[in-house]
User: What shape does this take?
Amino acid sequence: MNFDKIRRFLQLLEEVQKNKATDIIEFELKETENLFALITLGEMVGYANPPVSITLSLIPYMEREVILMTNRAVDSNDKLSDIASIMEVE
Amino acid sequence: MSTLLIIFALSIYLIFYFTYGKFLQKRIVGETEIEVPSKRMNDGVDYIPAHRLVLFGHHFASIAGAGPIVGPVLALAWGWLPAILWIWIGNVLIGAVHDYLSLMVSVRYDGKSIQYVAKDLLGKNAGISFLWFVLFLVILVIGAFAAIIADTFVSVPGSSTAYILQIIAALILGVLLYRSKLPFWLSSLIGIILLAFSIYGGFLWPIHLTYHTWIIILFFYIIIASAIPVNILLQPRDYLNSYLLYFGMLVGIVAALMSLKSFDIPAFTSFSANVIGGKSTPYWPAIPLIIACGALSGFHSMVASGTSSKQLASEGDGLFIGYGSMLTEGFLSTIVIVSIGAFGFTALGSHSTALANAHLFGQNYISQFVGNLGGAVAAFSKSYATMVSSMLHIGYNFMVIIASMWVAAFALTTLDTTNRIARYIVVEISEPLQKESITLYKFFTNRWIASIIPAFFGILLAWTKKYTVLWPAFSGANQLLASIALITVSVWIYKKLNRKYLYYALIPGVFLWITVTGALIWYTILIVPGYVKSNPLQGFLVGIIMVIMLILNFVLLFSMRSSFKKEEE
Assistant: This one.
C-alpha cells in the first residue's frame, strides 16, 4: 500500500517534470489536427473537399474534431496568451 | 544574516499566502456554482483538468526565466535592503495579486485570455494597446537579453561552449525521444548525462569571441531557432533546462540556508544610486523598471490566462497556482540578493577603493562591481558559485559554468520563443492592412519577414552593448502590461464581483500606473537623449517606442475612466 503511494508520488513528480515539454508537443499536434479538420471539413470555410468516398470514410473519426473545431473557431482570435504560456519570455 | 534573510523571506511568503492570499480567495473572488472551464468544457485537448502540482510546475517553469535573476543584480546599487523590500512588498501586494486575479478572471471568462477580457471590459483600445505593448516588450527583450547573453559569453567563455554543446545534446535528445524506440526514462537519462557533459565541455574548451561576433551569431540563431519545428530543438532543450532550474534553485536554497554569513555589501547606499545608463537614478519611481519579474510582471497575466486557466481543476487550486508560483519566483530573486549580498565581494576578489563606502558603492556598483565581474549574469553566477562551492564543496569553476548556463539558457530560450510570439503579433497587428493594401499585408505576414523584423530591431538595439539602458525599457513595457491587467481585473471586480473590494486591485493598479508612467517619463527625458547622442539610431528607436507606449498608456487610463462611468450610468 505504501509502495503504491510512493510510486504514485514519483509518477506525479515525473509528470510535473515532463508537463511543460509535453505541452509544446501538444501545441504542435493541435495545429496538425486543425489542418486535418480543415482538409476534411474544409468545405464549411470554402475549401474544396477531397472526393466524397474519402470524406465519408473519415467521418466516424471526425466527431471529436468537429467539437474541437467549433471550440477553436470561437477562440481563433485569442491565441496570444496560449502561445505565451507555452513559450517563455522572461 | 544570509540564513536569516532566507528564513524571513520564507515566513513572509507563507504568512501572506495564508492570510492575504486566502482573503483574496474567499472575499474577493468568492465561490461560484458554475464549474471550472476545464471540467465544464472538457474536450480532452485544450480544456482538461490537471493535477495542481503538474499545473504549478508548468506555470512556474513558464514564468521563471532570466528576468528574476538579472533585475535584482542591477537593483543592488541602491543597497540590498531597498532591493529586497521591493521584491517582497511588490511581490505579495502587487505581483502575486496580479497573477492570481488574472488567472481567476480568465477562469470566470471560460478560459479566455486577459487581452480578450481587457477588450470586453475596457473597450477595443485596451486590446490594441495590449498587442502593441507585447510587441515592444518582445523587441526590447530581444535587445536586452541578446546584450546580456553576449556579455556573459565574453566574460565566462566556458558558458558559450556549454551552451552550444547543450544545443547538440538537445538535438540528440530530440532524435532519441521521437525517432528511436528507447524508453522515455532511458532517453531522459542520456539527455541528463549529455547535459552534464556539456557543462564539463564548457569547462574544458572555452570559446573566446568578441561581443559583436556573438551578437551576429545570435541574430542568425534567433531566425533559425524560431523557424524550425519545436520538437527538434526548443522542446527537448526546454526539458533539459527545467532540470537546470530545479537543480540550481535547490542547491541555491540549501547553500544559502547553510551559509550563516553577514552581508558584505551595504544595506543602503542612496536613493539616487547610479543604475540606469550610468546616471543617477531615483529609487522611486525607477525601481519597477529594474526589478520586474521577481516582484511583478505583466507577462505573467498572459501565462495565467493562457493554458493555466483552461487546465485548472478547481477554483480552489487557483491560489496555489497563481499566487503561489509568483511567491516562488520572488523567493528565487531573494536567493539572488543573498548570494551577491553575502558572497559578491568574495567573488570579486579585491575590495577596490571605488567601492569603499556606501556612497561610493551606490555610485560605482554597476561599473566597478557588476562590470568587473563581467556583467549581470556573470556577477550572479560568480557570487552564487562562491556561495555553493564554499558551503557544499562543489568545484567553483564548475558551478560558475552551471549558473551562467542556467541563466543564459533561459535568456536564449526567451530569444527564440519571443520571436515566435512576435511573429504572431506582427500578423495580428497587420490585419487592418488587409483592407488597405493586400501587398503590404502579404509582406508583413510572410513567415520570414515577420520573424526578421523583431529579431532585426532587437539585435540592432543589442549592438550598443548598453543593456543597462535597454533593461529598464523592457521592464517598462512589461510593467505597463501589468497595469493593464490590474486595471482590467479591478473593472471586473467592480462590474461582476463585489464593489466593496474594488480597491484591493485598483490601488496596486493605479500605484503601478503612476509609478511606471512617471518612471518612463523620467527615462524618456533624461536617459534617452544621452542614448541618442552616443548611438543615434538605437536611441531614436527606443525614444519612439517610449513615446508610443506613453500615449497608449494614457489612452488606457481614459478607457478605464469611461468604463467606470458607463457602469455608474
Remarks:
- The two ends of chain B are 56 Å apart (CA to CA).
- Chain B touches chain A through 66 residues (CB under 8 Å).
- Chain B has 23 helices and no strands.
